[in-house]
Amino acid sequence: MRIPDPAPPRTRSGNLLPMINVVFLLLIFFLISAEMTPPQPLEVAPPETATDAPRPEAAGLLRLFVDAEGQLGFQAARGPAALDALARARAAQCAETDCTEAPPQLRLHADAALAAATLADLLGKLGAMGFAKVDLITREARP
């Protein structure tokens, strides 16, 4: 009687496809849930304040940056063109929503070394553009 040779043992290899699917699903989840903010157009060191009250985030928030020399930055625009870009962004927001009921919010990121006269001049220009309220961003004073 002839006994057949036993078949070589089959190696059991794990299927990696489910693990790859889970990794990609986690990657997609973290990319979607992450809050991505655009980079600041200018490097600004905000002035210090005694208390740092929390500022609620709002949809359609506009951010204007001013460095120590008075150079303006809004999104990709620099210098005097930043005010024009800000005016266009405000007009676009007012076209979408009623600006009399909910005026656009402007956050001003001004450097602590900025001259007060330059800041006052800028606030006058922003008021003429229709910004009734401008939030000056500060940082909490360190003891």
UniProtKB/TrEMBL annotation:
A Gene Ontology cellular-component term: plasma membrane
Localisation: Cell membrane
GO biological process: protein transport
Membrane-topology descriptor: Single-pass membrane protein; Single-pass type II membrane protein
Keywords assigned by UniProt, alphabetized: Cell membrane, Membrane, Protein transport, Transmembrane, Transmembrane helix, Transport
Identification of the protein by name: Outer membrane transport energization protein ExbD
Organism: Phaeovulum vinaykumarii
Segments crossing the lipid bilayer: 16-34
InterPro entries membership: ExbD (IPR003400)
A Pfam short name: ExbD
Keyword Translocase: no
Key word Transport present: yes
GO molecular function: transmembrane transporter activity
Superkingdom of this protein's organism: Bacteria
Signal peptide positions on this chain: none
Family named by the database record: Belongs to the ExbD/TolR family.
PANTHER family: BIOPOLYMER TRANSPORT PROTEIN EXBD-RELATED, EXBD MEMBRANE COMPONENT OF PMF-DRIVEN MACROMOLECULE IMPORT SYSTEM
